[in-house]
Amino acid sequence: MSPRTARLVLGVAAPLLALVAAFAITSLVLLLAGDPVGLVWSTILSVPEPRNIANIINSATVLYLSGLAVAVGFRMNLFNIGVDGQYRIAAFAAAVVAGEGWLPGALNVVLTVAAAVLVGAAWAGIAGVLRATRGVSEVISTIMLNFISTSLVAYFLRRVAVREEGSNIVATREIPESSRIPGIPLGSGPGSEVYGFVVVAVLAGIGYWFLLNRTRFGFDLRATGQSSAAAVASGINVKRMTVAAMLVSGGVAGLVGLPILFGDAYSYGSTFQSGLGFAGIAIALLGRNHPVGIALGALLFAFLGEQSNPLQILADVSPDIVAITQGVIVLTVVISYEVVRRYRLRLEQQHVAQQLAEQVPA
Amino acid sequence: MKPRRLAWWWLLIGLAAVIFALSLIEVVTGADDLASSGTLRAAMVATVPIALAGLGGLWSERAGVVNIGLEGMMMLGTYGAGLLGYHYGGWAGVAGAIVLGMLGGLIHAVATVVFGVDHIISGVAVNIIALGATQYLAGLTFSGLPGGGQTQSPRLGSVGSITIDPLSGGLGSLEHRDIFFVSEVAALLRALVTNMSWLVILAVLLFVVTYFALWRTTFGLRLRSCGESPASAESLGVDVLRYKFVAVLVSGGLAGLAGGFLALVASSTYRDGQTGGRGYIGLAAMIFGNWRPTGLLAGSALFGYTETLGLRQGGTSVRALLLVLAVLLVVLAVWLWRRSRYAGGGIAVVVAILVGGLYFTIDAVPGDFTRMTPYVATLLVLALASQRLRMPAADGQIYRRGSVG
């Protein structure tokens, strides 16, 4: 086998191996707990219906944006745990702006997106400034800011909220009909529409790739991430890059809640989906900070999440079991990449040694 | 040796100073719940899980393994305490918490030490797995039990507590007499001798043991050398990977115990989501404490105390803290001015006026804001305190056997 084909085979083998290992470990847990293993897998791995496919793409859209936001920080060795707080506070601000409807129709959408990005960036920027000026670890500050944003949003939500008659749900005013983003139909049938915002997510992915790989800013960011000493030596202002990277990361995080806001919920309430930021960390890690990898990771997580929903009814198994699978996948993927990397290194060494041996006249 | 002994004395003096300051604030602001024995006891209960989680972080990071998975190991601990604590009583619950926490530590150790996976990735994975596993298992084992359900366990057995009756009574009457400073000291002592859970005492012992094990034994020196310079340690014959492995296991056990404390002492049932991010807070407290047990304890206490204030008569207590903040900002401003840093001093004065003005315009801080007190306080202290933190030199780096060359 030539080195090139070997590389290709190994590249495909690594993630497959990881998936198989993750499924095996999950099966083991199910077996130990005495739950029906076969039924669980046949439910999860069944072919999804159009309605389910739409749901999978929808939640993947949201997870993808979250993963991108985390990945921006990771490329500079910044660990932004705060995406969770950033997207919630940004989605709340966006819902208020959109609900007020100062501008008509599509202009309102543009204004809302801008507001969300600004608020997300500002919230993350606090951690960036603290890191740059006071040397506060961004891990701590973003954790604290997550909790602070929860209380802050709760306080302001109570201030601006409109309460529906006979309901306990507190929420912001609904977005006017003219500023909702229509879904993209995916076959016929109820509920089989994909968020229109998926287009923005794809654009964000392309933007991420372009910014990091084709601009001076991206180069500086990656250089700082790989070696801040070398970055300083080549004239990069590391402090400014820290703040800038946090701003970009927070700005992307600001987008996370918008697909739900514009395509489904139309308002921010106490029941707005939370915890997306933490899923984003896992997905960014799974996708190795690569825009396409993150997309695959988001789709995989969304697939597992959607397909596990009927487990409770069909197999009397708690859908939480897939969280175990998801966590194990994160681990097995990196382990198998590491194992394969070492194996490939050895193959290459052998190959080179062989070539050298042939060159030397006997 | 001398400087060390001085450090312990300073801790006592610092504690007395804090109590004195609190007494003063109580008199000035009329917020009388700042140093009552009830507040202090609740603060103790809030501090211990954070401190134990941080202690877990200390063990693993001193050996050079970053442990963001503390939160997950704590979750496993709450479940272990719930399962065994219900069936076999309180102390079995403690054992269950430690064992399940160690199981989380085992995953992290195998991934990071054996396979050389990035520590953050592994920690995040542990958190996801633990969240899924505890919720899945809780539904499986607690639903159908009397008083239990899909997301929570029945009432758990107790680990017991001690009260030194004569002391407790006497100190109680002293506390109620409202003598400046004396009553507050009495309240502190009373909190220590009334309904003191055995698990709190165990936690304090673990701190002492950790200090001696890590800083006073050969084992500890070797373990810490793995976190500072694993290559040098290995060249001197230390089995680096084994030390790291053990450290992460201990770390998991301590984090599990922290979770067990939440289930057994703080609430006496297991509930989904009981940890509420305390594993992360413990990690923050450890960084805050400069990777040292005493600093970590101070950070956890700051957090536990402000959290408690927010939950008890939060409105008035947290309002009193605003005045403290204003005064501290004025002090900071004077300090900055004397160092000719006029811009910074000016900002400090403006913020001090704003905070002071807020104190005089409101009667009580709204509930949502009192709940964010611990987080804001931590951020402020970190931002204002000078950053002389130094983490173990090889913390978070992947080490392979034979890297010495």
Task: Explain what the structure shows.
The complex is a heterodimer of chains A (362) and B (405). Helix content of chain A is 74%, strand content 2%. With 362 residues, chain A is mainly alpha-helical. In chain A, the strands form 2 sheets. A two-stranded antiparallel ribbon of chain A has the order 1-2. In chain A, a hairpin with a 6-residue loop joins strand 1 and strand 2. In chain A, helix 1 (3-33) packs antiparallel against helix 15 and helix 3 runs antiparallel to helix 10. The model of chain A has no long low-confidence stretch (mean pLDDT 87). Chain B has 405 residues and is mostly helical. Helices cover 74% and strands 1% of the residues of chain B. Chain B contains 17 helices and 2 strands. At the A-B interface, helix 6, helix 12 and helix 15 of A face helix 5, helix 12, helix 16 and helix 17 of B.
User: For this entry, what is the oligomeric state of its chains?
Assistant: heterodimer
Number of strands of chain B: 2
What is the domain total for the residues of chain B? 2
* Name of the CATH first level of the largest domain in chain B: Mainly Alpha
Going by helix content, strand content and strand pairing, the class of chain B is mainly alpha
The percentage of residues in β strands of chain A lies in: under 5%
CATH class bucket of the largest domain in chain A = Mainly Alpha
Q: From the coordinates shown, what is the CATH architecture of the largest domain in chain B?
A: Orthogonal Bundle
Radius of gyration of chain B over alpha carbons? 22 Å
Gap between N and C termini of chain A:
25 Å
Q: State the helix count of chain B.
A: 17
Q: Provide the gyration radius of chain A in Å.
A: 23 Å
What about the largest sheet of chain B?
Answer: 2 strands, antiparallel
Derived structural class of chain A: mainly alpha
Tell me the overall shape of chain A: globular
Q: What's the number of domains of chain A?
A: 2
Spatial arrangement of strands, main beta sheet of chain A: 1-2
